[in-house]
Design brief:
With about 375 residues, the chain is of the alpha/beta class. The chain has 14 helices and ten strands. The protein has three domains: about 110 residues, 3-Layer(aba) Sandwich (Glutaredoxin); about 110 residues, Glutaredoxin (3-Layer(aba) Sandwich); about 90 residues, Up-down Bundle (Endoplasmic reticulum protein erp29). Strands 1-3-2-4-5 form a five-stranded mixed β-sheet, with helices on one face. A five-stranded mixed β-sheet has the order 6-8-7-9-10. Helix 3 links the parallel strand 2 and strand 3. Helix 11 packs antiparallel against helix 12 and helix 12 crosses helix 14.
């Protein structure tokens, strides 16, 4: 379900830009476009230039972001390899070169910042006052600052993984999609917080947690962080989705897999698993005694699934084929499309518990 939602958003976001086009300038329309009542951002490029090709999709997104403001600003490009006279006049010596011609002037402002969508928008808003219209992508990452850091990170029993980043950091940008996946993977884990904080704007916190480079990841253990003299753990592992999942599962007692699904241990309680094994082999009065023992044990465990073990035992007493039929029923529901991620987690945990009542098949004798 989570992957479906992510794919839907990506497709929607891409489709929003399909019809957006960068205005193409040449010697016929260049001087008719600049110096008039609209601001004009011009990308001087060459068709063979690798950096120009890399910039192209970002520049298309920029054109889409200002499409609704086309009566005030134009996002344009000019092939400087073909229009050499114009390129010479504006001292174009490398590609891509980007210049902003503000309204009613032919003297441009050189663009020298980062070539990301965010940086372009920040530049244009600063120079022209025109705000871009772009859809803000949904994020499951909690954004921290000095005002909410302690409240979020040091909330009781919360395990927090915090990314200290810098907006200009290339490694941070490369990590961003993976970190977003991790936040979504652990969204249903109420004891796990996936967060980030701009270290360049929150320097006191950055200094406190020894941030000397970016990205800097710090893990705050929910059980230990309230201890006097506690020092959080610096995450220095690999940065693939699986690496983060393994790290968090180990420290947070969670059971997530790549994509956010639960593994076959989720929901299981070891002491009740032992009783489940005994139950499927027991007969007569033994069954009643095990149910009574499981019921007493479940009352001492702060976990709603402890009661489910007792429920399953009572169901098996009434219907011997209950396990197979219930697993099949829940599996069929899980395969449906209209199931929330919370419900999917619940059904997966129930299926795991049901399977703990399966009799272990005896290994075949070796021939």
């Amino acid at each position: 379900m989570k992957l479906y939602n992510l794919y839907f958003f990506v497709i929607t976001f891409v489709l929003a830009f399909i019809n957006a086009k960068v205005t193409v300038l040449d010697k016929k329309n260049f001087y008719k476009t600049i110096g008039k009542d609209k601001h004009v951002l011009v990308k001087f490029f060459a068709p063979w230039c690798g950096h120009c090709k890399k910039l192209a999709p970002v520049y298309e997104e920029l054109a889409a972001a200002y499409e609704k403001e086309s009566d005030k600003i134009i996002i344009a490009e000019l092939n400087a390899d073909e229009e050499k006279e114009i390129a010479k006049k504006y001292d174009i010596k490398g590609f891509p070169t980007i210049k902003l011609f503000t309204a009613n002037t032919e003297t441009p402002i050189d663009y020298t910042d980062d070539r990301s969508l965010e940086a372009f928008i920040e530049f244009l808003e600063h120079e022209t006052g025109i705000k871009a219209k772009i859809p803000k992508p949904h994020s499951d990452i909690v954004v921290l600052d000095s005002g909410n850091f302690d409240e979020e990170v040091f909330a009781p029993n919360i395990n927090a993984l915090v990314l200290f980043f810098a907006p200009w950091c290339g490694h941070c940008k490369n990590l961003a999609p993976t970190y977003e996946k991790i936040a979504t993977d652990f969204l249903n884990e109420k004891n796990v917080l996936i967060a980030k904080i701009d270290a360049t704007k929150n320097t006191v916190l950055a200094e406190k947690y020894h941030v000397h480079g970016y990205p800097h990841l710090v893990f705050f253990d929910g059980k230990k962080k309230s201890e006097e003299g506690y020092e959080p753990e610096i995450y220095d592992g690999e940065r693939e989705e699986e690496d983060f999942i393994n790290f968090l599962n180990e420290r947070c007692d969670t059971h997530r897999k790549i994509g956010g699904e639960l593994d076959d241990k989720a929901g299981r309680i070891s002491d009740l698993d032992e009783l489940a094994k005994k139950f499927v082999s027991a007969t007569g009065d033994e069954l009643t005694k095990i149910i009574e023992k499981a019921n007493k044990l479940s009352e001492t465990i702060n976990n709603k699934y402890s009661k489910y073990y007792v429920k399953v035992m009572n169901k098996i007493n009434d219907k011997k084929d209950y396990i197979d039929k219930e697993v099949a029923r829940l599996t069929k529901i899980l395969e449906g499309k209209n199931l929330s991620s919370e419900k999917a987690d619940d059904f997966m945990k129930r299926i795991n518990i049901l399977k703990s009542f399966k009799k272990e098949e005896k290994a075949k004798d070796e021939l």
